[in-house]
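Data availability (excerpt). The following record was deposited with the supplementary files.
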Amino acid sequence: MKPIKTQLLNKPVRLVVPVLISACILLSSNSFAAPLEEVVVTAELIETNVLKLPNSVTVIDSLAIEQRAARQLEDLLNLAPNVNYASGASRGRFIQIRGIGERSEFQEPLINSVGVVLDGIDLTGVSLGASSLDLKQMEVLRGPQGTLYGANALAGLINLVSNAPTQEFEAKVDFAIEDYNGLEFGGVLSGPLNDSTGYRLAVKRFESDGFTDNVFLGRQDTNNISETSARLKLVSQVSEKLNVDTTLFLADINNGYDAFSLDNTRQTYSDRPGRDTQETVGASIVARYLLSNTDSIEAIVSYADTDMAYSFDEDWSHPGICDGTACDSALFGFDWFYISEDSYERQNTNTTVDLRWLHAAEKFDWVGGIYYRDQSIDLLRQYTFNEGDFSSRLDTQNLAAYGQFNFSLNDTLTLVTGLRVEKRDNDYLDTSGQTAQPDENLWGGRIALEYKPNERDFLYALLSRGYKPGGFNLDESIDPNLREFDTETMLNYELGYKSSLLDNRLRIQFSLFYQDRDAIQSKQSVVSSIATGQVGGACPCSFTDFTDNASSGRNRGGELELDLSVSDSLRLSATFGILDTSFDDFLSFEHVQADRDAGIPFNLNGREQAHAPSYQFVLSANWQMTERLSLFSSVEGKDEFYFSDRHEERSDAYELINMELRYTRDQWSLALYAKNLSDELVKTRGFGSFGNDPRKFYETEPYNQFAAPRVIGVRGNYSF
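Predicted structure:
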């Protein structure tokens, strides 16, 4: 097992400790500071104060979202400890929690480890459409959430909650202008339709040229951002006992994708830049019927229809790139460069029905439910080196029954138990004639003991079991012994302490966890040469992804969150995550050879798992300098991590500085903001097992995609 690198922890620790000591001194000298507001989590179905929840949870409120000028999930994920993301697209839409999660999606069916839900609409796997539009809060639940959310929540869940309609008419318009021709505008209308129904309509659009300079085409917008989202929310008091909430959601994303450079810079040579688009139409209806003072029935029906297109220029170059270089065709009598495009179009239709009975009493709370999910995914792949187009269809049905029970054993102890049993049916067919109909019976659950010695302190011990269904690899180039892979399961052991101190001016959340993973699903690849006429051992290569099972692995660490109201004008926050991961064995098949360079999986025993940085931290301060002027600043950092289980390429450790200076007067505000103020070069995706540059005769070297550079902008809003 790889030890936690204490020398790398020194830097963030040196940043955290002085801030905490200074804050405590200020707190002790100021007994009149404003108390912190209560934070309520909705993802557990029965609304619960975050300090009374036996789970490691981060809640990011609307103020934090606004201060970061956040537009998509990737802008917010770093605020939660032990949460990471991978790009390989126009946005970071592949999420990992405690080192567990997917990093890419190509031809093979993908099973997600992190669920994403927006107002009851299941956006798992299509989270590019999950914008920050008019959000009340984002809830990040770490660890298996299988009891209530099932197969797509092995690592955790992200629950997005939008603002509710207001009782009186309100309206707001927003705008922002920033570097790289960034332009944002939007607005909100909210109020009552009649005595029983309120509405809230929110719309936002953001455009940017992106951060890529395409040298060959002479364009700076080939990795552009063009995103529109809209939501209509209706809340109706149909009768004294019946409430019905309706949400309609639209996302229209038309982003470019031209992110990888042969020179490992933001200058590209592609002649046919790709795209990363998504159109999602979603809806949810939540009906709550009050049976008594303690009992209610809740029915949720959601629907999401998504069309996605993802394509890229696989050669990252253009005809003529060898002219005047060492690979000039005049020197060899043939062209070294190759031309290749790869395109994936998906239609994802997802319908869910969730029927629940909720009982909330002083000594005994419980939730019981029946869940059904019907999902179909149609894929069309067009690839230069395929003889024809490839298409497939995957139909999946999930039927589950679940329950969670909270028993008050006495005034200080509460026992929490939960169980979910789920049946999953699949039906797969593609144009190569491959078919599969795997069915599985799955189960997960939790048991927790809560200890509340007083109104201030809360301690818990948690054991939870999560699962991720097995699947299949159907490409003909895959070894028949690797065609199917097994279900991954995980036992999560967690100890936590939460408290509100100093008259609710200091909020603490602390957790330690140990996760025992069995049959880890790990993505690997088979490599094959693309015939271009070149000589020697070098080659541009085609990769066929497949998923296989490691025998086991361990993920352990801790999370700390602090929120401090130092005075009426100063608030400090800190989050800190430590993570240590390893494979215990990979692989268990005797026929596998230890040849990483050939794209064949080898024994990774003892190596860190991919996208699992050893530490993450965020320090932030909100200072109300005057009645109208405020300053927000934050420092966030992350350790290096492996990009993949297939190669040795790693990210670099980094620290980012973000700031906002805001002026507020009456009904309007104006803010100057800076993201990544020190202009750090942050790697969000990397490859290290192939070469793609004909000028170097396809010598194997690492390639990286980068996050945004320094961005400075101005935004404002007006309310009326």
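Summary of structural features: Helices lie at 6-28, 62-67, 146-149, 329-332.
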